[in-house]
Amino acid sequence: MNLFPHIPSYLGTYGSLIQQQLTMALLSVLFGLIAAVPLALLCVRYPKIYPAMVALLTVIYSLPSIALFVLLVPSTGLTQTTVIIPLAFYSLAALVPNIVDGVRGIPEDVRLAAVAMGYTGIRRLVAVDLPLAVPPIMAGLRVATVGNISMVSVGTVIGVGAFGALFTAAAQLSRSDLAVTGIVCIVALALVCDLLLVITQRLLTPWNKRRSR
Amino acid sequence: MISFQQVGKTYPDGTVAVAATDLTADSGRITVLVGPSGSGKTTLLRMVNRMIEPTSGSILIDGVDVRSKPAPELRRGIGYVIQNAGLFPHRTVLANVMTVPRLLGWSKEKARERAMELLLTVGLEADHAKRYPFQLSGGQQQRVGVARALAADPPVLLMDEPFSAVDPVVRKDLQTELLRIQSELEKTILFVTHDIDEAILLGDRVAVLNTGGTLEQFDTPSELLAHPKNEFVEGFLGVDRGVRRLSFFSSGAVPLRPEPVVAVDAPPQEVLARKGTQPWLLVVDAETKPLGWLPAQQVPADGDLSRVPAADLVSYGHAFTVEAESLRAALDSAVLSPSSRAVGVDADGRVVGVASVEELVPAIRAAQDGSSPENGR
After folding, report:
1. How high is the pLDDT of residue A210?
2. CB contact under 8 A, B51 and A115
3. How far is CA A119 from the centre of its chain?
4. What is the distance in angstroms between the Cα of A16 and the nearest Cα belonging to chain B?
5. Do A195 and A19 form a contact (C-beta atoms < 8 A)?
6. Which residues of A touch B (CB under 8 A)?
7. CB B109 within 8 Å of CB B141
């Protein structure tokens, strides 16, 4: 069986599908991260709201993506935006707990030293707390990225599923080879992105003794 | 000078961490706060740089209330060394040391230059600069911690159990280094420890604190050992305070006798003559460095010491350096030696003479009865 068969031209080319898949997956992770940092810091600052935040994020994570796409179509149309918004929320749910744990996990003596050196709030956050939280943040980013790369394909229900379109076509045309191709491409993209994130983390944290893989 | 004036800390639940305390840490001296856990020593220390605010009283540094400027600004002017060093793991050694100068707005070049200079001061090498904390041993990390605290040349240094997490050998090194650095820099150091030996070794003055933050006694180490004010202080000092206090007296007063000392190549008739008057002979080499003790009855009949196998010489334990080392070292030398005699050597390790335990007693008596020790430490 040919692993990369010719795909019907109305579905697009391999190049365009890769581009769509990555655009939607990575933009949703990015937006998720941008929203997650302040939310997580809020939870660190006011620990009492954290359980409620976790509960809320769990609820969001449990919402079926198909339902969200359908609900969003009237306002955002059959566009990539409609796919990106729910996936950004899923990323948020994966990232917030990691950032909270990361910042809370800073060793007490390091935190004390930072205060005793005369760091003020924001400066300490930027210079000490966030850099030290990079490993858990990166772990969250990896989970969110791989998850979203897979989830994007559900967008095929509103016609913007990138490689997801191959699954619909496989069903309609009775061509299971298209489904296999879709799976292989998605897994490959996920692995490549994950590897890039691991490399990025290594470059960002040369100081990390326990290099997690 | 740091003065605590009726400083107290009571938590909202009524727990008293520090009872109203008056204490003065002299400029250019090491003042040690020592006590069991729960004695408020760390609380007292952290109130100086306002990491903890007192609920009563005030703290003045050189006459200025610590509350007269914003806490972060105050902290940048006070060095702080913490247990486990508390280095920033994501920064190189150099960047760690540059922290406070950078916060104070120094240029990168000036801060770097200063940091490199300090690494050498604390006994590290230039090629440690580019490493990350996890690549250093515990002792090296703590040296970096000290360098970081000294970076902006603050007049006051707060040290919060800085050496308690390293092994005893490294601790001894760090303590010696601290005393060396202090003799050059003369900072006003407030040092917290739960280890009374460390307090006695490092402190110019030692404050002994009891549970509930009560100050039991504030004195020089020698005074503390000689005259503990109450049972708590006495108990805290341990059962060997008399012997320990001898470390504050020079061994210069020890009467040393040269008669038992014979060179391994001494003429046989001389050896035989000594044998008649001395129960033990200390055999020394051609440079008068000690080789070991020989009981008189084991001296060869012909008086030729060179025939005595090295294994027959009894170890002298350790010698003490006359003047430079203390009466305690002299006593220890005598106690360790099977001959009950201490071996006194000069700075080059050449034997000056020996003294038995009995002969040490008058010097010890004079030290214990005398009003003050001859040397500070």
Report:
1. 61
2. yes
3. 32
4. 40
5. no
6. 107, 109-110, 112-120, 123, 128, 131-132, 134, 205-209
7. no
CA distance A157 to chain B (A): 46
CA–CA separation, B109 vs B24, rounded Å? 38
- Rounded to whole angstroms, the Cα distance separating A183 from A177 reads 10
For residue B307, is it left (φ>0), alpha (ψ between -120 and 50) or beta?
A: alpha
Q: What is the model's pLDDT at position B366?
A: 86
The β-bridge partners of A57 are: none
pLDDT beneath 70, residues of chain B? 371-377
- CB distance B51–A128 less than 8 Å? no
- Range in A101-115, A117-131, B126-140, B357-371 with the lowest mean pLDDT: B357-371
Residues B222, B36, A108: CA angle, nearest 5 degrees:
120
Coil/strand/helix, residue A163: coil
- Best mutation target among B45, B90, B137 (most A Cβ atoms within 10 Å) is B90
Residue B105 CB contacts under 8 Å (≥ 6 apart), including other chains? none
pLDDT at A212 over 50: no
- Kindly report, residue by residue over B335-366, the tens digit of the pLDDT: 998 889 999 999 999 999 999 999 999 888 88
Residues across chain A: 213
Chains A, B: CB contacts within 8 A come to 67
- What are the sequence ranges of the domains in chain A? 13-204
Chain B interface residues (partner A, CB cutoff 8 A): 49, 51, 72-76, 78, 80, 82-91, 99-100, 103, 132-134, 148, 158
For residue B348, the tally of other CB atoms under 10 A from its CB is: 9
Quote the percentage of chain A above a pLDDT of 90. 65
Q: Which of B76, B86, B89 is nearest residue A118 as measured by Cβ atoms? A: B76
CB contact under 8 A, A119 and B103: yes
For helices B138-150 and B168-185, angle between their N-to-C axes, nearest 10 degrees: 20
What's the ipTM?
0.82
Q: pLDDT value at position A33?
A: 95
Q: What is the pLDDT of residues B69-127, one digit of tens each?
A: 999 999 999 999 998 899 999 999 999 999 999 999 999 999 999 999 999 999 999 99
The β-bridge partners of B210 are B214
Which of B46, B47, B80, B88 to probe by mutation at the A interface, max A CB count within 10 Å? Answer: B88
Whether this prediction's pTM lies above 0.90 is answered by: no
**Shortest CB distance from B86 goes to which of A112, A134, A206?**
A112
In the CATH hierarchy, which top-level class contains the domain A13-204?
mainly alpha
The CA distance from B310 to B247, in Å, is 33
